[in-house]
Design brief:
Layout lengths: L1 H51 L7 E9 L5 E12 L9 E9 L10 E4 L7 H5 L2 H10 L5 E5 L7 E2 L17
């Protein structure tokens, strides 16, 4: 009779352990499903944000900026980016990001903005604006209107915004910014 009691006790222990394993497995499956759901949700949000922030021709971003000359002097300015098509007549989606700095006018009644395009060979407008002799000219021109220092395509902070095998990739001269 004692032997029968021990066997029943062992059966109850085994049954309890099996139930405990089933509960643990059920918990692990629930945790795994929750983990998969959260990962899927995170991927969806990331993909949605990336598509919402997609660059397109005509997109313009302008933000406050501290323009620093090579003498170490800082001036309040605006830094901008404009996305344009590589070729307006082509149907490809190759974009170029043009970067520029706007030195705000000091005039109460400003004239139209003055755009500075650095001459060749391959000098970025923003980089040239940091040179003290050039900046003194731009500072005087600010009395007339805003002065825009433009990095032409492929120079300074302007570059191909579309990374694709069919878009031409040109070497980029990068100035300190």
């Amino acid at each position: 009779m004692l032997r029968k009691f021990i066997c029943l006790s062992q059966i109850d222990t085994v049954t309890f352990q099996n139930k405990l394993y089933l509960v643990q497995i059920s918990f692990m499956i629930t945790a795994f499903r929750t983990y998969i759901f959260l990962i899927s949700l995170l991927l969806f949000v990331c993909i949605f944000q990336m598509s919402a922030q997609q660059d397109s021709a005509g997109k313009l971003l302008v933000e406050p900026y501290k323009f620093k000359t090579y003498e170490g002097k800082e001036y309040d300015a605006e830094f901008g980016k404009l996305w344009v098509k590589e070729n307006r007549t082509d149907t490809s989606k190759c974009l170029i990001q043009l970067s520029f700095v706007v030195l705000k006018t000091t005039s109460a009644n400003p004239a139209p903005p003055i755009v500075f395009l650095a001459g060749g060979p391959g000098a970025p407008g923003i980089g040239m604006g940091r040179v003290p002799i050039y900046f003194s000219l731009f500072d005087k021109l600010r009395a007339l209107g805003d002065v825009i220092l433009l990095d032409q395509r492929g120079l300074g902070r302007s570059f191909y915004a579309t990374r694709s095998y069919h878009c031409r990739q040109t070497p980029v001269y990068s100035s300190r910014y």
